[in-house]
Amino acid sequence: MKLVRHFAMGTAVAAVVAGWSGAAAAQETLTAWFTKGFYKGEDDALLAVVDKFQKATGVKVELSLYATEDCVTKSVGAVDAGTPPDVGFCTTYDFRTTGKWAYDGKLEDVSDVIEPMKAEFQPMALSTTFLMNGKAGKKSYYAFPVEQQMMHITYWKDMLEEAGFKEADIPKTWDGYWDFWCDKVQGSMRAKGKRIYGIGHPMGIAASDTFYSFLTFANAYNAKVVDENGKIVLDQPENKKAMVEAVKSYANIFQRGCTPPSSVNWLDPDNNVAFHNRTTVATHNATISIAGKHMDDMNNPSLTAEQRAQAKKNYEDNIRTAEFPLKADGSKMTNLAAVKTAVIFADAKNKKRAKEFMAFFMKDENLRPFVEGSAGRWVPTTLKGIEAPFWSDGKDPHRAVVYKQYKDGTVPFQFVYNYNFTTVNAENVWAKAVNRVVQDKVPAEQAVDEMIARIKQIAG
Amino acid sequence: MTAPLSAPREDKSGFTRDRAMWGAIMLAPYVLVFAVMVVYPVAYGLWLGLNWNSYKALFADPIFLRTVVNTIVFLFVAVNLKFLIALLLSGFFVQQRAWIRIVLVLFILPWAVPSIPTILSFRVMLNPENGMVNQQLFQWFGIMEGPGWLTDPTLAFMCSIFVHIWKSLPFWTLILITGRLAIAQDLYEAASVDGANRWQQFRFITWPSLATLYVTSTMLSMIWTLGDFNSVYLLTGGGPGDLNHVLATLGIRYMRNNNLDLGIASIIVAMPLILPMVFVMVKRLSKGADA
Q1: CA nearest to A352, candidates A107, A102, A30
Q2: What would the pLDDT profile of A235-260 be if each residue is shown by its tens digit?
Q3: Mode of pairing for the β-strands spanning A144-149 and A379-380
Q4: What pLDDT score was predicted for residue B62?
Q5: Which residues lie below 8 Å from residue A382, measured CB to CB, with a gap of 6+?
Q6: In this complex, is the C-beta atom of B266 within 8 Å of any C-beta atom belonging to chain A?
């Protein structure tokens, strides 16, 4: 009897164990954390890729979508705790963490996935994922270039006309361009008794818009900050001189009262808000999200027919997306691009499947709908992607400008060459230098000396 | 001669043992909560703050010294101004008249309502372009560019102090009213009979009676003011240009930049300011309990 009982018990335990392992085998999983899209189209495209991958491999993808800030904060915590997901794609990784994670050996080398598809990417976009691993002491591909963003100028064409000007009146030269918005357009509006500002000019320390805009100004003056080995070259006389001019130029717009005074406290959405409120005639913004908001409204069924019609008119007629003017030396402006990176973590549990998933996700037929789902907010990193009709047919007034900027060529942020520049940007030494000039009234030369000293402390 | 009314030795020790055991059982939840909620977080924070490099980095950050100066100025101005006004107002509100009681109820409102919406409403009102204040200046007086309430560093700092005082003044006024009400009225009547004027009554009766409460409250307020995050962060975010941070907001700024070590360090450097105040506070309160 005892023997029978032991046998029954043993059989039951074996059945449970077999069932368990069988269930585990049937439920191979892959965890992926993504930033939740601004638009439904992004999330729908992502879910479609996940669905296709699950059907093709039988692997269950546990996908979590997080708000922009939560995504990176949660990822940093998980990496520190040694419990990251298998795949991570947050749209602020590039600004905040990718370079440092690669340097600290927290990312998986994905060269075996990237190498076969190298020729498909825009070279600059791809180069931002070739990062230094401090532990291994060598550079390699540690991330996937999923999509990117660039700086654009956005202005109200109808307000420009109200001020008595045509688009053809907008100068192309650097100083002439800003003078036009400051003196002529704003001046004309003020003469009509309107409290309207020429430019929405981000100055806030806590806004990534500020350092993105300022570094575009630094490019306009050819102020080189680091070389391709990550060595700081800003203290070289020609670069320092150029940076002083960039600080003066950026500060000057505030000093002349051409931007709302509150721009010194602006966070990232605030220049968009000021523009939508028609407090400013023009602004510079990374992505075409300002125009995109009106496109979203014109298709929003919860709005009235009149509101949708107005949004359509705004998107198609009233709002213009434009390139930056020529550089201070008269040459063509270089477009500073931020490449949004996906990664596979070194501590991931299922790296093999993670690589399979990313190789699948980065295929043109999967990646393109995802990028295009953002309605132009994000730009492709692949050569095929940018040549798709969505960008290249010239039918959309805003995307046509983005396409042209892309074709003009892009340059990366400094943090691609020296990851410590993520800290430099987080601390926003650039905005601090400008604020030293406008708030503390110190000469731009002194502000730049302080800037260089601080950059060397952080990234030297 | 009667026998002493005492329990047998064995029973007494059993009783004592039981009391001690019940005492320990009753105390255990408190000790546990104290350990989890106070001892562990403080010890963990101190442990995180043991990184010497964090302090080197903190002192190397140009914004830090400015923050320390801001914190000291904020403490000195806000606390003293607040208590001076509270002292004056407590003299007004202590009067037993119906309309003054109604005013007192209205006066208490800023303290009673939640901080976040009220301070954010100040932020909206003081916005230089669209805020109610500058809009009115434009509409009434045609002033195109009103004062930069939150964009001029000095004005913004003063606004933060104003909001802090506006928010916490009712509480401290109430405390001082309570202190004034505890003073025996016959002292004032006797002083009045002796011909003492209002100032002499204040100097020789009110102030000596209130002094202990005033000083103790001031120290307590200093500790709270040092930790006041809302008034500065919600109004200006420490701006413009990171120029108006205090230690409470600087720590959060570091943490938002994924720099936990510096955030902890910036909070721990306030310890030399806080600990002496806590020590003096406890000593004063102990004296009060002994008296």
Answers
A1: A30
A2: 999 999 999 999 999 999 999 999 99
A3: antiparallel
A4: 82
A5: A120, A121, A122, A364, A367, A368
A6: no
Average pLDDT over residues A176-184: 97
What residues are paired with A410 via a beta bridge? A335
Name the residue in chain B with its Cα closest to that of A70. Answer: B256
Assigned token pair, B123:
């932020």
CA–CA gap between residue A178 and residue A197 (Å, rounded): 12
Integer Cα distance of A218 and A430 in angstroms:
10
Q: How confident is the model at residue A24 (pLDDT cuts 50, 70, 90)?
A: very low
Structure tokens at A275: 């523009």
The answer to whether the beta carbons of residues A70 and A127 sit under 8 Å apart is no
Contact A195 B138 (CB under 8 A): yes
Element (H, E) at B71: helix B62-93
B15/B251 Cα distance (integer angstroms):
53
Range scoring the smallest mean pLDDT among A151-155, A300-304, B213-217, B264-268: B264-268
Q: What is the ipTM of this complex?
A: 0.70
Band (A59; pLDDT cuts 50, 70, 90)? very high
The residue among B257, B259, B262, B266 with the most chain A CBs within 10 A of its CB, best to mutate, is B257
Say yes or no: B62 contacts chain A, CB-CB below 8 A: yes
How many residues can be counted in chain B?
291
Q: Does A205 touch chain B (CB under 8 A)?
A: yes
Mean confidence (pLDDT) of chain A: 92
How many residues belong to chain A?
Answer: 460
Tokens representing residue B238 in the block:
């420490």
Query: What does DSSP assign to residue B291?
Result: -
